Structures are given as C-alpha cells and as structure tokens.
Amino acid sequence: QILYLKPPWTLANLLKCYKKHWMAVFGYVVPRSLLSTIECLSNHLYADKPFDSSTVCILLQESKKLLHAFSCRSDYNGVLPQAYAEVTKLCETLGEVRAALVRADSEQDLSEDIMVLSENAACEKMEATMPSLQSTEEKELHPSFHVAQENRHQEIWSVLEGVWNTMNLYSIELFQKLDPSAVTMAAKASFEEAFLGLQKLLAAVKDIHEGIGR
C-alpha cells in the first residue's frame, strides 16, 4: 500500500524504488554509500545515447558491487549467486573482446609502419624476409604459449580491478576526512597515510601504463 511503484517491475522501476526508499529501507540492509551505484546504473542505462566498451565495463563492475553487497544478507533462494555469475561471465567476455580489439589495433599500426618503411629500398628487402622468419617462429612456439596469451587479458583485468577498488577505498577515506560531519570516524587514518597511499597507487598505475606501452 505504501510502495512508490507497484509490481510487476521493470529494471527502471526497481532502480527508481531503490532511490526512493534508499534511506528508509535499503540503507539499513547494504552500505548507504552504494546509492552512488544505483544512480550510476540509472543514469547510464536510461540515457539516450549509445554505450562504449568503457561504460559497459563500469556498469558491469557497479552491478557486481551491488549484487555482492546484497549477498551478505541472503542468497535470495539461489537467484543472486546465479545473477552474479552471469554478470561475471559478461565481464570476462567483454575483457576478451577488448583484448582482441587492442591486438587488432596493434597489428594495424605495425602494418602501417611497415608500409611507410617500404619506401626505402633496404627496408623493402627487410620486409620481404620478415614473413618467413615470422612463420618459422610461430612453428617453434609451444601450444601452451598461445594459451597463456589468451589468458593474459584476465591477469591484466584483475590488476586493473584491484587498482580501481584501492582508488575507491582511498577516495572514501579522503571524503570522510574532509567532511565535517564525519569527525567521529576520524580515527581510521591520518592525512599523511592517505596521501602516502595515493602516492603508492600513482606509482602502481604508472607501472601498469608503462607495461601496456611496452
């Protein structure tokens, strides 16, 4: 009788109900900071514009955060673990697609470089010998090498997800420090500790960036 929107619900209806009843209901079940996740999903899923792969990645990660938070309360008759598994599978599929696109772009860039160099006669001779060398190297590679290459994107994804989660934690810590209403929670860490943590995070991101560049 007091519901904001009555069932049957669409996903849009559910997100609206979450926002409407967040402080009075859902904020007592899961961390209230997850309201930003609800708003992120709502703003992007019903925006009148196409998605790029980065946006899809963000939406999937935010969905996993929300599902994980509710899983601490109940498995909801097995429905929630199944939903979490499906979202995780989508994340892995997206990672494979993005890795394939990166490889394709790298191959295209290499091809363009070879075309430019081929204007020089010496480079033309080098270009003529490269296919046979490449073919020989591919024959010598052990099959396990190709399997490792296929799984490489999962390792990269795991590192980036760890960096993202760390960044979120430090951001929350800093906002709590800067918010006068959060003075009672001030015993967790000092400004200096948060700053040093961000410096370490910056170094980690730099290492990842250099690795991708190589």
Automatic annotation (TrEMBL):
Encoding gene, per UniProt annotation: Swt1
Name of the protein this chain belongs to: SWT1 protein
Xref: InterPro entries: SWT1_Regulator
Species for this entry: Panurus biarmicus
Signal peptide: none
Domain of life: Eukaryota
GO CC terms: nucleus
